[in-house]
Amino acid sequence: MAPSRLRAARMTPPPYESPRYLDAGEAALSVEFGDSVDPEINACVLTLDAALREAKLPGVEELVPTYRSLMIHYEPLTILRADLVKVLNSLVLQGASAFTPKARWRVPCCYDPALAEDIIEAARILGMSPDQLSALHANGCYRAYMYGFAPGWCYLGGLPESLALPRRASPRGATPPGAVLIGGGLSLISANPMPTGWYVIGRTPERMFALEREPPLLIEPGDDVCFEPVDHEMFFALEARAARGEIVALREALP
Amino acid sequence: MSATLRILKAGPGASVQDKGRLGFLRFGVTPAGPMDPGAFIAARLAAGDAKGAAIEASLGGLELAAEGGEIGLAIAGGAFDIRLDERALPSACVLRLVPGARLSVRAGSAGAWVYLAPFGRLDLPFVLGSYATHARSGLGGVDGRMLRAGDALKIVDPRPAPVEPMAILAPWIGERPAKSRVMLGPQQDYFSPEAIETFLTARWRLSERSDRMAYRLEGPLLQHLKGHDIVSDGVAFGAIQTPGDGAPLVLMADRQPTGGYPKIANVIGADLSALAQMRAGDLLEFASVSWEQAVAARRARARAIAAGVALEPLLRKEFSPEFLLERNLVGGVIDGRKT
To answer: Domain boundaries in chain B?
Structure first.
């Protein structure tokens, strides 16, 4: 999906005309494309991430895409900052907003209030019924913007605007495993239980982070994500299969 | 062939670490790894294999014994008090731990972290390519947790250590720059020139509320120019972030890979070890350097490490009666009556 379709109207500032190269010490460079959570800015980040992974530059050790910047951890005794920036400039010129995801995931999600601990509360704040909330969430098309906070916690752009609600003033208790959350205009699929300021509006039987499974992590930053509603019974059936090592989310390769 | 390293006592802060869990930052996985990378590599080099893992201990100390066979250990870190049974050893040394002997590691005159690298491989599961313990996410080491009394660490493919303890000479251990060098950024524009001036001229005190994740600094509060919330971006080891309360904290080995507070500066790689070895209450100052200066310092350190460590025999300073008797010191006495 083109990034423009993720956005109804521009609510946030556009990407910078050219990226800012910000040092985070001598061995990390943050390539910043903008200062907001925005599909177009994130597409620039993901495009550069994909191009740099492809380029396999000696000395480039790790790439961490975030909403608005790509953090490049590098060894400055192997690649000079100036040479790295030269490569980055040429990659950025090769088209930033033309990001095309490599895969789309269909992630099963149960919105039953028995599992979706905060859906009633979130629906009340949003002024709708829990059914309306789950229908809107399940009809959304999302993109994995970044991981953060804890292993396997995947932050998704593309939440319908009608579901944007501020984060809680103080965090709720630990999330259930596989909680699907909303907060601050984004959605999130979590892995291991952690306290959070977001609202649990669903649960997936899929394990976003499972060490004993190969691969332990499923969704790449930049992949598209949609949710397949499942009922209570189906949730537990899929959860049992996932516990046996099966991947219950469906990955479709995109052309 | 294997032997087991038994943890007899473990204070808080002891864990298994290797160079860190690399390659999964993009999935939210904390790198962990040693707090003092320089001392860690010195211990590993002295143990004859740079790639392995080591036990990291902190001020809470550690007591160990070998079971089922002798185990060689290389120790390096802060100026800890190291004793093999009653014998005091240098804070950086290699030794042979034989069954029945007891090695104790206690906080000494300075330093906060010490590494014990076995001559051999710790038989632990490789988790996402690393042995490093990250207790908060339950990854690596022994069941993803800190070490405790009773833990048994199997050492496989053990290599022999010198029969007599020897001192490790590694010139980069204990290097203590007068000021911690930093590179400003990536969000120095979130602070006024006055706040940056304050940051660079203040004497900071390391807070008691410091751990493997972050070292908190006490001192003047740093005012933000445009709020304390930024859209999350990447975080490096040594990033100095300033949350809403204005009290900066230095993000250390157990940092999250991304974060949402403005980072005024990053401590340069060459000065991370010295910073990590500071204790609560210690004072520090920062000095701003350029990328070129930071890389020059990094290169100098990398060269020193590439030259490796040397081992030096110990000069005995304490003489027990048994030791003196063994030396047969009276053997050379001449009989005056016969001359």
So the answer is: 2-174+309-313, 180-302
